[in-house]
Request: fold
Amino acid sequence: MECRATFHLCAPFLELKRLQTILNEHLSWRTELNPEELQMDICRHLAKEKAELLENFYKTTITYFCSSWEEIRAVAAKLAGIILEHTDTKNMKWLDMEHLLTSLQVLQNDPSPIVQLVATQVLRDI
Reply:
């Protein structure tokens, strides 16, 4: 409930009307929230409409690879993978693929089995 409320409050500041429509569909109080679909739809939209915003989103995401919370590390790795999956890497001149691969390899040796699994899946998908 808190996540839905936060998205509803923050989304207008993005000034993206089509994204607002997507968020409203996902965050409707009548539907069950599916975070993975929400992530994919947001990334897909940003890749097409606001590449610079997606770049900032990605750069912020990878900073969470070093979080002290294993759930945050796992979700950050998964989200980085989703961003890559839904964007044309040729147009992502800001993407340092070597740094990403190295960071994911470090996460493969994480103390958390969940983080290890997600990092391995993302590396496999890349």
Summary: The CA atoms of residues 51 and 91 lie 9 Å apart.
